[in-house]
Design brief:
The chain is of the alpha/beta class and 486 residues long. It has 22 helices and 5 strands. Strand 2, helix 2 and strand 3 form a beta-alpha-beta unit. The longest helix has 21 residues. The protein is globular, with a radius of gyration of 24 Å. The structure holds flavin-adenine dinucleotide.
C-alpha cells in the first residue's frame, strides 16, 4: 500500500530515543523514507543556551542515538546552524514532503517552532508536531474557569482524572532511510560539546546517558526502591530516588514509559502515600512545572508573585562564590554544592536546603542560584529549575512561604542522620563526631583537634550566623509585605 508521503524529516531535539517516540513512529508509518536529523543551534534558546553539564550529557546521548540508528542501517544527520534555514534547505535538497518533531515548551522554542511550522505550511510541506514528553499537554488540563492551575494538588487530581494511561509505542522496525542529501553534515566532535578542562571526570562514574541508560535506571528503581520511595526519598545518604531526571530532560525515556513500567494501565489515587504513587506525584510536579512554564513564560527570570520584584537582595559576589564552591561552613550545604560540581546532580532535599540557604541566609537573588544550577546540572531543565527556585524563594506557584526558613543544621541532622552524605563530600570533616558534624563550630576544641579539623583553615568558619541570618531574612520579607499592604 502506498504511503501518504515520500520523504519525512524527523527533527530530533530533546526526544533522543527510538521507543515511544510519536514523531518518529508517525514518520515511519506515513512516509516511504525518513531522514533523522539533529540541529545544533544553541543561540536559539534566548539566554538559556544549554550549560556545560547539559552539553556533556547531550554529546553522549547523541552518540547513543546515532548508534541506535546505525543498528537499523540508518544515519542520524548532525547539522549546525539556524534551525529554520537548515530545515528549509534540507527540505529543498531532499524534496522532503513531510517534517515532524516532538514539542518543546520553553518560550523561545515555542516561538521558533510556530514560525517554522508556518513557513513549511506556506511552502506546501506537510508538518506535524507531537506530544512526546508530557502526560498531558499544558493546555489540556485547565481549571474549571478555563485558566491555568497555580496550585499543585488540584492540578494533579485533575490530570489523573483526565489521563487515559496508554501503552507506550514500540521502537519502529523497518526504517528506510532516504538518500543522504548533498549538504554539509557535522561529526559529533565538531560540536565541541565536551568541556575543555576535565571537570567532567566524575560524571562518567555516575551516569550512562542515552536510551539504554534511561531504561536501566527505571529497572533499578522499579523493585524495592520504588516500594520504599516514600520513606527514603528525602535521604541524600541513600540511593532512594530514581535519578531519572537527566534521562527525562533529554527525552531518553518518556513519562508514559515510566508510568507504564511502574503502574501499567492503572491510575493512582492522588492521595495515596504508597511508594509508587508518591513517585508518580513527583512526575506530576514535572508536569506542573511545564504547565507553569507554558502559561507563565516570564517566570524563568521574574517572580510569579510580583511583590518579590521589590525584594531587597543583598548582592555579594563573595557570598555567591563561597556557595558555588561549597565553602559556606554549613556542612550539608557544602556537601550538596560539591556533589553538584562533581556529579552534575544533587539530591532534591539538598537542592531545597542549598537554595533556601542562598536566598534566605545569604540574601542572594534566586536568579543567580538558578543560573549556577543551569550551568552545572546534567538535568538542568528550564521548567523544573524555575519552579524549584521560585518555590524555595517563596515567590512562585504553590511555593513554600518565605517565612519558613530551613535550618541547615536541623535539616542535616534529620536527613543525613549518620553523616554519611556530609562525610562523603566534605572528607575534611570525616573524623568529626556525629554530634558536631552538622555544626562543627559548636564542637569543643579537643573534639575538633582529635578530628584534625581547624576551622578557618581545613574547613571554613560559618559564613553567617544562622539565627541572625534568619532574622535579617524575615525583616527583608517584612519590607515587601509592608509595601504590598500599603
Ligand atoms: C532549587 C531546585 C532546582 C531544581 N532544578 C531542577 C532541574 O533543573 N531539573 C530537574 O529535572 N529537576 C530540578 N529540580 C527538581 C528535583 O530536585 C529533581 O527533579 C530531582 O532531584 C531529580 O532526581 P531524581 O530523578 O532522582 O528524582 P525522583 O525523586 O526519582 O523523581 C522522579 C522525577 O520526577 C521529577 N521531579 C521530582 N521532583 C521534582 C520537582 N520538585 N519538580 C519538578 N519535577 C520533579 C523529575 O523529573 C524526576 O526525575 C529542582 C529542585 C529544586 C528545589
Amino acid at each position: 500500500m502506498s504511503k501518504e508521503f515520500t520523504t519525512a524529516i524527523v527533527w530530533f531535539r530533546r526526544d533522543l530515543r527510538l521507543s515511544d517516540n510519536p514523531a518518529l513512529t508517525a514518520a515511519v508509518k506515513r512516509s516511504e523514507t525518513i531522514l533523522p536529523v539533529f540541529i545544533w543551534s544553541p543561540n536559539e534558546h534566548g539566554s538559556w543556551a544549554p550549560g556545560g553539564a547539559s552539553k556533556w550529557w547531550l554529546h553522549h546521548s547523541l552518540s547513543g542515538l546515532g548508534k541506535a540508528f546505525a543498528e537499523k542501517d540508518c544515519e542520524l544527520l548532525i547539522l549546525e546552524g539556524p534551525s529554520e534555514k537548515t530545515i528549509l534547505e534540507l527540505v529543498k535538497k531532499t524534496s522532503a514532503d513531510f517534517v515532524v518533531w516532538n514539542r518543546l515548551y520553553e518560550p523561545a522554542a515555542v516561538k521558533r517552532d510556530e514560525k517554522i511550522k508556518k513557513s513549511l505550511k506556506e511552502s506546501g510541506i506537510g508538518v506535524e508536531s507531537f506530544n512526546g514528553s508530557l502526560l498531558l499537554e499544558p493546555w489540556e488540563n485547565m481549571n474549571q474557569s478555563g485558566k491555568p492551575y497555580k496550585v499543585f494538588t488540584p492540578f494533579w487530581k485533575s490530570l489523573v482524572q483526565e489521563l487515559k494511561p496508554q501503552k507506550p509505542l514500540r521502537a519502529p522496525g523497518g526504517i528506510t532511510q532516504s538518500d543522504k542529501p548533498n549538504i554539509k553534515t557535522r561529526k559529533l566532535s565538531d560540536l565541541s560539546l565536551l568541556p575543555k578542562l576535565d571537570w567532567d571526570e566524575g560524571f562518567y562514574e555516575y551516569w550512562t546517558p542515552g536510551e539504554e541508560g534511561g531504561a536501566k535506571a527505571v529497572r533499578r528503581f522499579k523493585g524495592d526502591c520504588a516500594k520504599e520511595y516514600s520513606d527514603t526519598r528525602n535521604r541524600p545518604d541513600l540511593q532512594g530516588t530514581s535519578r531519572l531526571s537527566p534521562h527525562l530532560h533529554f527525552g531518553e525515556i518518556s513519562p508514559r514509559q515510566i508510568w507504564h513500567k511502574l503502574f501499567g494501565e492503572q491510575k493512582p489515587k492522588p492521595s495515596s502515600k504508597s511508594g509508587v504513587e508518591t513517585f508518580l506525584r513527583e512526575i506530576g510536579w514535572r508536569e506542573f512545572a511545564h504547565h507553569l512554564l507554558f502559561h507563565f513564560p516570564e517566570t524563568v527570570s521574574e517572580p510569579l508573585r510580583q511583590e518579590f520584584e521589590e525584594f531587597p537582595w543583598n548582592k555579594k559576589k563573595d557570598f555567591l562564590r563561597a556557595w558555588q564552591k561549597g565553602q559556606t561552613g554549613y556542612p550539608i550545604v557544602d556537601a550538596g554544592m560539591r556533589e553538584l560540581w562533581h556529579t552534575g546532580w544533587m539530591h532534591n532535599r539538598v537542592r531545597m536546603i542549598v537554595a533556601s540557604f542562598l536566598v534566605k541566609h545569604l540574601l542572594q537573588p534566586w536568579q543567580d542560584g538558578a543560573r549556577w544550577f543551569w550551568d552545572t546540572l546534567v538535568d538542568a531543565d528550564l521548567a523544573n529549575n524555575s519552579l524549584g527556585w521560585q518555590w524555595t524563594a517563596g515567590c512562585g506557584a504553590d511555593a513554600a512561604p518565605y517565612f519558613r526558613v530551613f535550618n541547615p543544621i536541623l535539616q542535616g541532622e534529620k536527613f543525613d542522620p549518620n553523616g554519611d552524605y556530609v562525610r562523603k563530600w566534605c572528607p575534611e570533616l570525616e573524623k568529626l563526631d556525629n554530634s558536631y558534624l552538622h555544626k562543627p563550630w559548636e564542637a569543643p576544641k579537643e573534639a575538633l583537634s582529635d578530628a584534625g579539623v581547624e576551622l578557618g583553615k581545613t574547613y571554613p568558619e560559618p559564613l553567617v550566623d544562622h539565627q541572625r541570618a534568619r532574622r535579617t531574612a524575615l525583616e527583608a520579607y517584612d519590607e515587601i509585605k509592608d509595601k504590598k499592604a500599603a
